[in-house]
Amino acid sequence: MADTPGLMQAVRDRFAHVDACPFEGKRIFFENAGGALTLKSVVETTATYAAIPDNQGRANGASRALVAAIDRAKADMMRFLNAPGGTIFVGESGTEVLFRMIRDACLGAAPGGVVLGSSVEHPASRSAARRWAEVSGRDYVQVRHDDAAGLVTADAYAAAVTPEVRVATILHTSPVTGMANDVPAIAAAIRAVAPEALIVVDGIQHACHGRIDLTAADVDGYAISPYKLFSRHGYGLGWASARLTALDHDSLDNGPEGNWELGTRDTGAYATLSDVVAHFDWLGGQVSDATDPRARIEAAGAAIHAHETALTQAMLFGTGNLAGLVDLPGVTVIGGAENPAREGLVSFSSARVPAPDIVEALNGRGIRTHTRKADHYSGNILQPLGLDGAVRVSLAHYNTLDEVRDLLSALREIL
């Protein structure tokens, strides 16, 4: 994207607080895995719908407009995900949506068997799978991830899957290592042995990088946290296949068939999803000649991946006369520097300076990053590496090479 004159500035102009914090002033935002920047259109849409007093399902024009906005957002998200049918719904958070889908899969799957997951997963899916495996009277089997590469492979799943697998979980991208797992290949490995398994994917970290294709993935559930997809806090998004939706789940007696939502949802939350999809559509039109909306979304995802890869490569190996992380003394890059699975994120540790001190020093220079500790969120990744913490630098497509240069200059001083 940086090669297209004016495009980077046009992208940055679409986001709120792109270069300054409303509380701390000018800063570089490299904490996108903790929550991405928000589209200005999302801010405007949120305010618009927050002011509307009418409710859905009423016999008036305002109510019909609200329902139309929800229907439009669902159709937009189906296109964004390239979903093969199924249902779009919103819940409390991405984590809550994962828990609900995994619970319903465990309680509704055929009797017996096991629940299969992997050690690379975020606790949002691991905790849900462990709990509902136990409640449904099944063993939980965990596939070991590759500690050095920071990911889990389809071969590792294939070695663990048996015909007894009833439910399986997959992490699309790790928020600690930044590595994407090959969801279609892993799902194919599972279905080759357990074709009726219900497969639920944690897409929370992956979504902002684009390139989601649920038709190719052949899974039953996919969860997203919209505040990490350029929308806002306060809700989660789920896609559930027709097969998963047909299982018993919490619903009102005699209510609509296949409904996942409990109570009235925020129309504005749905409407902001249309803003997100419109942004991908716009970006795809800037970087390609595609006219089909799905093709533009795919083009945007490809451009985002290429841009973020260029930034992480500069961060790792340097740019101009600035040394990269691999050349700084005592630095260990989580997942290895040469890793094609990386998506817009670099985590590293220093043998000389503790991770919290690095993050604090960067904050003092106006560069926002984050410490990942070996706790219940990240211990599954860091403890096998003998680390008690790491610095996470997470990018999005509005970040620039100049920002990476500022980061490297600061790290040269700090380390």
UniProtKB/TrEMBL annotation:
Keywords, alphabetical: Pyridoxal phosphate
Every Aminotransferase class V domain range: 28-243, 302-406
The keyword Acyltransferase appears for this protein: no
InterPro entries with a match to the protein in the record: Aminotrans_V_dom (IPR000192), PyrdxlP-dep_Trfase (IPR015424), PyrdxlP-dep_Trfase_major (IPR015421), PyrdxlP-dep_Trfase_small (IPR015422)
Highest rank taxon of the organism: Bacteria
Record's keyword annotation contains Coiled coil: no
Protein name per Swiss-Prot or TrEMBL: NifS
